[in-house]
């Protein structure tokens, strides 16, 4: 508890490579949730002990596959109802997962726990530069309220640059759903 | 005619697959290396990005084969390279697109086939009718110990079916297991039907389940919320609640696990009909909940109440509606830990054990709080796989492993119930 400021948490965690469970890296972090103003995202400071694995090869293969498509990529329901993800969609799913991490961070409080539930729709947006741009409509699952929240996010990426969420907005939910 | 239907299905599947990148002419090779030299040559190949190679098993050591998918227009170049260097390879897949198309066909076909044969595929998700058909099949194939009972009807008038596992006696002490109270938690209904088959087929073979059923009965409600389950298939995969109409609101449904008579109206449930944790206008307002309550009260001899949810990998005991410990806290915690240990022994899946309030959140009107306060000491709620990577959309290939490990946890609890009459 920090008077008049908020609540600070000190964390020790282990990061595990999604694609290689034996590849782990230790991490320490400090998270500060601000008192009062619920619109301020928590402050996060972190230190990674060691290096994250190099993903250049996989990044380049994915980048080239998308670049060589004749038409802009469009897909829906990733994973589908049965949890299936076509192999060629796996990088699209991973990209959404990273990007949704940013959206989740920006919208988290001490009383929320978000997970990416599903990509309802993704379409590639044509660009004249070397970046890849994807417009995602995702569903976030908020554990405490158990609500499923539709969200739109625009994601920019290039192998030599980090993932950017250039635009995101919470979407309305229909009463009939 | 059925031929027309197949032509339509195939062309629809073909059409759907053509929307995305295709794998026409892609080959998958298995390359056998005999020394480090050859591994290095393959790593060189791997670095040539323009070939678009997709290594399913990367070159790392001569001890392991290297599997690689090669786009059509690189196949000849890669084979020439391998042959020039005398590196042995075989063709695993001639044309990947053919394999993918066949897989889609098979999946559509096997659903059709299941209706005519008696081979129920436990490793895939099924619509309600298929599950109900399999309940009948189990009751018929194992009629000496399995019978099907209807305990009520859902809001939309679907039957609520319970399988009773019993070797006789009269109103023996009983164990209650339910799944699918929240309809989007598909791995629970899927695990429940596997568990039904397991109990039935293991009786007489497995000493533990045999001795258990010789003394006690098991009642298994595989789909507690059938209206919601159908809705997740037809309209909204993420639907959680019942499908009852709420007076004065456009929003449908009540959270059936906030509707039990345990701290009803307290914190941890919403009073807003549009909320996914809406408690309902009153306790037991949902016919699905009332049917279970009435059945258990009328039976009068239940000793354990076990309910399956997903996801998060948790094993919880009461309370949810308040954060104080139940009187039997020590015993329930120890038993929970023993069950979690059994679960972990199979595939290493770890479950966190604790009371609902301390482990997940404060939530009023929950089923195991009701059953515990009613006098059923061994009340536990499971949250099955996973911890969020796929969440509700758990891949079908994890159904059976999930069911297998969950079964070990349930067995640990049931054995303790058997050995500790009260």
Automatic annotation (TrEMBL), chain A:
Residues 1-57, 74-177 form the Cystatin LXN-type domain. GO terms for molecular function: metalloendopeptidase inhibitor activity. Keywords: Protease inhibitor, Repeat. The keyword Cell cycle does not apply. Pfam families: LXN (PF06907). One of its GO terms (cellular component) is extracellular space. Belongs to the protease inhibitor I47 (latexin) family. This is LXN protein. It comes from Mesembrinibis cayennensis. The gene is Lxn.
From TrEMBL, chain B:
PROSITE patterns: CARBOXYPEPT_ZN_1, CARBOXYPEPT_ZN_2, PEPTIDASE_M14. Residues 1-19 form the signal peptide. SMART domains: Zn_pept. Pfam families: Peptidase_M14, Propep_M14. Its cofactor is Zn(2+). CDD domains: M14_CPA (cd03870). The keyword Disulfide bond applies. Keywords: Carboxypeptidase, Disulfide bond, Hydrolase, Metal-binding, Metalloprotease, Protease, Secreted, Signal, Zinc. Transmembrane segments: none annotated. GO terms for biological process: proteolysis. It is found in: Secreted. Belongs to the peptidase M14 family. This is CBPA2 Carboxypeptidase. It comes from Mesembrinibis cayennensis. The gene is Cpa2.
